[in-house]
Write a structure and sequence with these properties.
Keywords: Hydrolase, Protease, Signal. With 429 residues, the protein is α+β, with helices and mostly antiparallel strands. Helices cover 20% and strands 34% of the residues. Mean pLDDT is 84; it is low at 1-33.
Length: 429
């Protein structure tokens, strides 16, 4: 997202710098008065000079940039004017805050994939008051509606009903499971509001685990790229050398942004793998403007800490957060997610997972003891709620999750099958 800002000073500074540099280069007498006639130089044939990679990038842009969409938002807020009563005003003023992100067509119906944070009202968590989309080489803006939003994945699906059919240009979707580190990556979007911009780099990592999402976000595998990604690129596509979408640009690492308040590319950007979006598309299309949640199996963690009011609040971290002496005292493994409660009617209960049976306070916290300890999911270590969620995040109804469990000191394997109930209820906070 990008808030309105001014770039005139930056552009002017660049132009002045170029002028100073040019004027500072001296011309010697030998250079200005030489009589030697220069040899004729054949004109440069630009088409022949293009590298294969350059031509490939040009072809990608020409073919698929028409599938890029600018996403504009408006958010109306009302503020009280403390001086209004003294000057005949009503004391309240309405302000319109605008934002800009990116998106792209994913099918012939005109469905537009973007980030959830691009179209979300930060204050209420609901959609922005108005969402419009704009196409390449056109100043027209079309009102768009949210078909579905998945805030935990930072994904949203839009549709603008009045878009001309001929203007819809879907970009083909790749298989992000086949990505290789070092392959080409082309990012499209509107960095800092410079619409329909293109940058190029490589895939720096295919398996970078970072927290993604705006409400109850989940640690997920993301694509890391050094293609320049900045505010305004959010929701735009990351493409491979065949022009297929491999990811949705979503986050950047910005040390400069920590000081300035405005994120800036530092050469480390992240994209949501397109396979995550492909898995969610049917649910987003069927959401009827509602929220799509990550699957859950129906457990609550056993560890809790006291808040300021003295209430115990469950925490997501696992047993490694306890001291070694505490684990020995409680006879618990060194790592793992201790199950506190199991929700009836959800997959964990159907698989026979067991929750805690007795409570013990320790170090200002509380532990529900007697439950199973989940140590791995689908072969990946589990030591927190986030670790378990990462194993579930791409799950679909009918998928089986293999859990390694320690019960009463004995290791066992439990298979949990995701059901329709895993997807329709809001996750526990």
């Amino acid at each position: 997202m990008r808030k309105s800002f001014t770039v005139v000073a930056v552009m002017a500074g660049l132009m002045l710098g170029a002028t100073v540099l040019r004027d500072a280069v001296p011309i010697t007498a030998a250079q200005s008065t030489g009589t030697t006639t220069p040899a004729a130089v054949a004109p440069l044939r630009e088409d022949g000079a293009r590298l294969q990679n350059e031509q490939n990038t040009i072809d990608i842009v020409r073919t698929y940039e028409p599938g890029l969409v600018l996403v504009n938002t408006e958010q109306r807020t009302t503020t009280q004017d403390p001086y209004g009563m003294f000057f005949g005003g009503g004391g309240a003023q309405e302000q319109v805050q605008t934002g800009l992100g990116s998106g792209f067509f994913v099918n012939d119906n005109g469905d537009i994939l973007t980030n959830a944070h691009v179209v979300t009202n930060e204050s209420t968590g609901g959609p922005a008051d108005r969402i419009t989309v704009q196409l390449m080489n056109s100043d027209a803006k079309y009102d768009a509606q949210v078909l579905g939003v998945a805030p935990q994945y930072d994904l949203a699906l839009l549709r603008a009903p009045k878009l001309p059919k001929g203007a819809i240009k879907p970009i083909p979707l790749a298989n992000s499971d086949e990505l290789a580190v070092g392959q080409k990556a082309v990012a499209m979007g509107a960095p800092f509001g410079f619409d329909f911009s293109v940058t190029e780099g490589i895939v720096s990592s295919t398996n970078r685990r970072i927290p993604i999402g705006i409400t109850g976000g989940i640690t997920q595998n993301a694509i890391q790229t050094d293609a320049a990604v900045n505010p305004g690129n959010s929701g735009g596509p990351l493409l491979d050398s065949r022009g297929r979408v491999i990811g949705i640009n979503t986050q950047i690492i910005s040390p400069a942004g920590a000081a300035s308040g405005t994120g800036q590319s530092a050469g480390v950007g992240f994209a949501i793998p397109i396979n995550v979006a492909k898995n969610l598309l049917p649910r987003l299309q069927a959401a009827k403007g509602g929220v799509v949640y990550a699957p859950r199996i129906g457990i609550a963690p056993a560890l809790a800490v006291q808040d300021r009011s003295g209430q115990y609040v469950p925490v997501s971290f696992g047993l490694s957060a306890l001291t070694e002496s505490a684990r020995q005292q409680l006879k618990l493994p060194g790592k793992g997610l201790l199950v506190g409660e199991v929700t009836p009617g959800l997959p964990a209960a159907a698989a026979g997972l067991r929750g805690g049976t007795r409570t013990q306070t320790i170090g200002g916290g509380r532990v529900l003891l007697g439950g199973d300890v989940i140590t791995a999911a689908n072969g990946q270590p589990v030591d927190s709620v986030e670790d378990l969620q990462a194993a579930l995040v791409n799950g679909r109804e009918g998928d089986q999750i293999r859990l390694k469990v320690v019960r009463d000191g004995q290791a066992r394997e439990v298979t949990v099958t995701l059901t329709a109930a895993s997807f329709v209820q809001e996750p526990a906070r």
